[in-house]
């Protein structure tokens, strides 16, 4: 619920809700599956570094640091299994469908002409939330009707946002799922997908598809100036960054948030924070693709969607969306690698319900026995 604040508190609704969820998780028992030791360290290392830089420079943005700390806590609480991923998936599905439905009903009243916003705040944030929620919810839904509703709402929502970045992210996610089904080597597939995505991003900046988005010539020109100013800031910043809350570019005396989450991390925490934050995302992805034969490509696709959105959106990598994606992915990986009933444990809820790669492999082993 971007853009909405709790009356009297002044804090965003989504941050308050995340904080309450973390408190619930802290009062619950973990599922017993051990996490890799590096995982909680990486989850908190980025915010600790940015906090240290901010304090050393004498300008700590307490609100921004609190938000980052909350996201890190959410990652660890979810990954440790203190919040059940199946329940989280169903909750994400419900919230996303309601959000898309509300945005559709209020479509004509949107502050962005002919673009879905609803309770999400703006079209780009809406697209990010929609693709992330869909990727994390579909693996745990039981009924085919529920899956169709969620998939249909996600498709309609992304199209109605008319966000080029999230359209690209959704396409990248679909391509990844197809390549996973075709048994492509995951790292070779990721390389091809990365090259293709970057080509589309650069081609779009050079004018590809300009006719279809001719009405945004003015905003595109402003975005180009913001990107130019952001690059100048990053190039002139020290290796350790400028601290929390400094990822803003000044154009004609006005302050704008960066339009790249990668540049935002670079500005706030320099190369150290960049390696820690991006490294967590990449390490989580690496753990997922090593889960053969119990891979769940939709979880992998969610991380890819976040990585793609981060290219052209400023608030992606250190947000609730990315925190939940990393947390759920690591919870599934931990339970799959270290099942509580031993190596012959029953397949997880995801592989049983999706009929996917892991379910097929388990079934074939059962037939052999």
Can you describe what's shown?
A hairpin with a 2-residue loop joins strand 1 and strand 2 (254-257). A two-stranded antiparallel ribbon has the order 1-2. The protein contains 14 helices and two strands; from the N terminus they run H-H-H-H-H-H-H-H-H-E-E-H-H-H-H-H. With 369 residues, the protein is mainly α. It is 66% helix and 2% strand. It has helices at residues 13-26, 38-56, 62-79, 85-105, 123-137, 144-161, 164-181, 186-205, 217-236, 261-289, 297-312, 320-337, 349-354, 357-368, and strands spanning 248-251, 254-257. It is globular. The N and C termini lie far apart (50 Å). The longest helix has 29 residues, at 261-289. Residues 341-346 and 358-369 have low confidence and may be disordered.
Fold blueprint:
Layout: H1 13-26, H2 38-56, H3 62-79, H4 85-105, H5 123-137, H6 144-161, H7 164-181, H8 186-205, H9 217-236, E1 248-251, E2 254-257, H10 261-289, H11 297-312, H12 320-337, H13 349-354, H14 357-368
Antiparallel strand pairs: 1-2
Helix pairs in contact: 1-3, 2-3, 2-10, 3-12, 4-5, 4-6, 5-6, 5-7, 5-11, 5-12, 7-8, 7-11, 9-10, 10-11, 10-12, 11-12
């Amino acid at each position: 619920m971007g853009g909405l604040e709790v009356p009297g508190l002044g804090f965003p609704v989504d941050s308050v809700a995340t904080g309450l969820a973390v408190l619930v998780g802290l009062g619950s028992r973990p599922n017993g599956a051990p996490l890799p030791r590096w995982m909680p360290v990486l989850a908190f290392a980025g915010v600790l570094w940015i906090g240290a830089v901010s304090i050393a420079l004498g300008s700590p943005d307490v609100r921004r640091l609190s938000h980052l700390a909350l996201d890190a806590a959410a990652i660890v609480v979810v990954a440790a299994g203190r919040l059940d991923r199946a329940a989280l998936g169903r909750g994400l599905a419900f919230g996303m469908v309601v959000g898309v439905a509300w945005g559709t009903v209020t479509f004509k009243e949107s502050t962005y002409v002919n673009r879905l916003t609803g309770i999400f705040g703006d079209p780009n944030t809406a697209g990010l939330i929609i693709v992330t929620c869909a990727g994390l919810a579909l693996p745990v839904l039981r009924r085919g009707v529920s899956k169709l509703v969620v998939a249909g709402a996600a498709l309609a929502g992304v199209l109605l946002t008319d966000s080029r970045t999230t359209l690209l992210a959704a396409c990248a996610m679909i391509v990844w799922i197809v390549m996973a089904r075709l048994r492509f080597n995951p790292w070779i597939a990721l390389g091809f997908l990365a090259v293709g995505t970057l080509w589309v991003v650069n081609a779009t900046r050079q004018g590809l598809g300009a006719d279809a988005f001719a009405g945004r010539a003015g905003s595109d020109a402003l975005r180009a100036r913001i990107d130019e100013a952001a690059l100048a800031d990053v190039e002139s910043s020290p290796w350790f960054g400028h601290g929390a809350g400094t990822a803003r570019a000044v154009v004609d005396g006005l302050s704008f948030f960066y339009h790249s989450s990668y540049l935002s991390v670079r500005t706030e925490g320099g190369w150290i924070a960049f390696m820690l934050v991006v490294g967590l995302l990449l390490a989580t992805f690496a753990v997922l693709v090593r889960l053969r034969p119990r891979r769940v490509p939709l979880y992998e696709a969610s991380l890819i969607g976040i990585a793609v959105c981060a290219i052209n959106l400023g608030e992606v990598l250190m947000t609730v969306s990315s925190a939940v994606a990393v947390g759920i992915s690591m919870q599934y990986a931990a339970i799959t690698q270290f099942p509580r009933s031993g190596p012959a444990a029953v397949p997880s809820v995801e592989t049983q319900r999706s009929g996917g790669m892991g379910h097929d492999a388990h079934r074939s082993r059962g037939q052999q026995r």
